[in-house]
Amino acid sequence: MHMEHLKLSPLLKEAALADRVNAIGTAIKEQFKDDEEIVAICVLKGSFMFFSDLIRAIDSNVICEFFGVSSYHGASSSGEVKLTLDLNTPIENKNVVLVEDIVDTGLTMNYLIKNISARSPKSLTTVTLLHKPAAKKVDCKLDHVGFEIENNFVVGYGLDYLGYYRNLPYIAEVQNIN
Ligand code: IMP
Ligand code: MG
């Protein structure tokens, strides 16, 4: 299918995203004391745009780390999570803030929580920009959720369809897949 045949309908515009991202950044800062360091982990690829806005909204000492997982092919979850890029810094005894783009079935977040927890951080705070409660297969602890959305496929602001649309500055529902 050529990308121009996908019908997009805007769901979350830039201003709505910015307001919510700033509010989450403030809430995260308030969880910690002023001199406490935060290790913010960007889950690649989908959360890179959310992550870059979020860290600018956390007015504290933030260290950025990148963690790559791949779990999705086209518009339906494979249920398998593959590590594509490991952290290159120990996070033992650190305050970790894990930043995801979307929790769909929950399988990826579940894998991430287990993987990160096994490295004995001092604390683990989970953040997801989007959450589809209706798609849930496994429970996972979500400390900050940007928006709960319906069980439709979305793209933009880092989220892709077959690698496309990550550069869309807002989030849109795709009308003609699922
Ligand atoms: P889960 O393991 O089923 O929760 O899926 C999580 C991953 O699938 C996310 O980190 C996304 O990369 C991807 N994903 C889930 N839903 C969507 C969507 O609507 N659009 C784009 N990617 C999605
Ligand atoms: Mg993801």
Structural description of this entry:
With 178 residues, the protein is α/β, with parallel strands linked by helices. The protein has one domain: Rossmann fold. The protein is 21% helix and 37% strand. The protein has helices at 14-31, 48-56, 107-117, and strands spanning 8-12, 37-44, 61-73, 76-85, 95-103, 123-131, 144-148, 154-155, 171-174. It has a 6-stranded mixed β-sheet, sandwiched between helices. It has a 3-stranded antiparallel β-sheet with strand order 1-9-8. Strand 2 (37-44), helix 2 (48-56) and strand 3 form a beta-alpha-beta unit. The two termini are 14 Å apart. The mean pLDDT is 93. It binds inosinic acid (IMP) and magnesium ion. Residues 46, 71-72, 77, 100-109, 153-155, 159 line the site of inosinic acid.
Number of E-type strands: 9
The order of strands across the largest sheet is 4-3-2-5-6-7
Rounded mean pLDDT score: 93
Low-pLDDT ranges: none
| CATH top level class name | Alpha Beta
Distance between the termini: 14 Å
Tell me the radius of gyration. Answer: 16 Å
User: Topology as H/E string?
Assistant: EHEHEEEHEEEE
